[in-house]
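Hi W., the xanthosine-5'-monophosphate complex you wanted:
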Amino acid sequence: MAYDYMTNVRPADMARINTPALAEAFIEEQVASLREQIGDKKVLLALSGGVDSSVVAALLIKAVGKQLVCVHVNHGLLRKGEPEQVVRVFRDEMNANLVYVDAVDRFLDKLAGVDDPEEKRHIIGGEFIRVFEEEARKQEGIAFLAQGTIYPDILESEKGVKAHHNVGGLPEDLRFELVEPVKLLYKDEVRMVGKMLGLPDNMVYRQPFPGPGLGVRCTGAITRDRLEALRESDAILREEFDKNGLAGKVWQYFTVVPDYRSTGIRDNKRSWEWPVIIRAVNSVDATSASIEEIPYALLNHITARILNEVKGVNRVLYDLSPKPVATIEWE
Ligand code: XMP
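Structure:
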């Protein structure tokens, strides 16, 4: 049965998309209705590489091919390998019309010396809109803006918890008609649809990642060297969790590099370097979180790798604080 996906209310009898067959049916239905809605016009999408925007991109590529213009903004706060993966999957493998914007210097210059977490978030969010707006203005004939809104976003925005529009804040003349093909789906359904669209598992089953990215894990004023230590230590943690079967089991895991140094010894000389803090938590909806009991031998191995491989780091700590009283992120 075909549902009206234009409304913001999920029909009570809509089956949970939890089998490949249901996902295929959804894709087929969506492709037809997207083709009808879009016609021969162009659609713009901010593609972060997160689950929701990636699934929307894949659906639209299937429906309208090169009429979709994906804009991937690299703000310098993505994890190791992420921008490269977005380009590889979408431009190389799916043959998408992808604009890659290297805005690393622009973001990091704006953030230099800013240590207040909320101001950092504000700068990252604001600059993102400006970069996206500039790219939107370079495109001709855009009629639609696609967004990876999902059903929990709609429910939360109705409750006034948060505004759900990912690219809210664009100026009046760039307020295109919205295309939100997964807005009635829950996260598990979005993942199932993504899998059936051929997206790689590490994109579809990605752990939650905050919009301001590594920016809120490089605490205080962000510096490029500390950001590099954060990116490298996070990559080691992810690699070890992958190898040891924890990647699909632990809800969210990452490293933090605080703006603080301590004494150590390196090459028989006194060193003055940063700590890396490991965080690995389990949660259902992020409102509370408990700590994963990482096997001690694995913790030791990860510690040794970080101390050996990450420049500027002389200590590794494991954060044992649940939420509440702590929050998941450090900022
Ligand atoms: P906290 O730190 O509040 O995090 O316990 C709860 C969940 O939300 C994520 N988070 C964010 N996501 N923008 C986002 O898109 C943000 O500014 C932000 N801050 C926290 C966090 O990663 C966790 O999953």
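Residues 121, 208, 210-212, 252, 286, 323, 327-329 surround xanthosine-5'-monophosphate (CB under 6 Å).

W.
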